[in-house]
Amino acid sequence: MSKAEPGNFQTLLTNLLREHVKPAFVKSNNSAITPAGRKAIIALPPRFEASIDETKSKPWKYGQVYLITVFEWILEQLDLLERTGLGEVFQEALTPCLLYLPELTPEAESLQLLSAVYPTLLSLIRTRFPEARDQRSMQKTLDHLFRYGILKGYAHAGDNVRIAEFLVRRMTDVVNEMGMASCKHLKIVLCEAGLGYKSSKHLHYGLSLISARVRSLTHLQQIVPLLSAVLSDPFATAYPPLLLAALQAIQSVIIIDWSRMEYHGGEILRSLIICWCKILQDEDTARPSSLGQVKAEIKHNIGLLTAVLKRDTDVAVEYRMLKENDGRLEELLAI
Question: Do 302 and 273 touch, CB atoms closer than 8 A?
């Protein structure tokens, strides 16, 4: 049906919500919603009933996962969630799904659910806060999604590389939404670079020339150490898709938070160098095509970072010192 028929289209959306989406959520007896379908002024604490079968009370998590995708599409068409107060209710209902992770949830089911929930929540957040005056509330909500979903999920993912890859890719989405407000999360995504791997005494010495420039902030936050830990993991080359996801996330960090590279650029450079040297070491035993793409992404990141650092630093001098101490960096730091 075409949007050129606004009355009929609005009716279609209303019927989808009333006849398909709402019944699936109503079965969970959410005390935050009134019988009329609006946000309750006073929400009573939920009652625990041991006999409840969650597959029946919350079908949108199990047999009817497609409803989340339907709901996401409806969100793109409607602007009534905040007027009814249901935006916050839907968000609270969907947020627990972010932690349906292995081993409590099978990997395949977890990825299927997460793949629907993250885009839906981002769409919901955009719909709830469309105006410039809502930016503070939007950033607060995105911050919660980042902490509760990405960071907590990553901590629970353990050694599951597919879940880790998925969450790092979603990190890129959230960072792009947050824009400059993501600066406060930069520190955790960088400062663990190199803790798990040192290639040689010469490289370690050379890297210290760059690392000495990194200024220590009062609080370790979130993004940089996480990504650096991925790049510097001794077994990182065993699963190149995770490396590619981390490198693409770092690109977003450099582009969006370029003004903070004076403080974080050294740690990012350090983690990229460590990953590069690890790849050179493992190339003979890994699939060349997969690692070739990773090498290309590392060089692209170096190019972006160099362009930003040139504003405040004579990177040519520092790069020359690094290359003199380790010949493996000639190709990587050729500027």
Answer: no
* DSSP character string of 107-132: HHHHHHHHHHHHHHHHHHHHHH--SG
Percent of the chain at pLDDT > 90 equals 28
189: β partners: 224, 225
The confidence band for 80, taking pLDDT boundaries of 50, 70 and 90, is: low
Is the distance from CB of 256 to CB of 175 less than 8 angstroms?
A: yes
Nearest to 75 by CA among 128, 26, 134, 38: 128
pTM of the model: 0.68
Contact 291, 279 (CB under 8 A): yes
- DSSP letters of 246-257? HHHHHHHHHHHT
φ, ψ at 130 (rounded to 5°): -85, -20
pLDDT of res. 132: 65
Q: Which residue has the tokens 């006073």?
A: 42
Cα separation, 201 vs 76, in Å, equals: 55
Residue 307 exposed, middle or buried by CB count within 10 Å (0-12, 13-18, 19+)? middle
**Which residue in the block uniquely carries the two structure tokens 């793409």?**
293
What pLDDT sits at residue 29? 58
Dist. CA 22–CA 37, nearest whole Å? 8
What is the average per-residue pLDDT within 146-169?
90
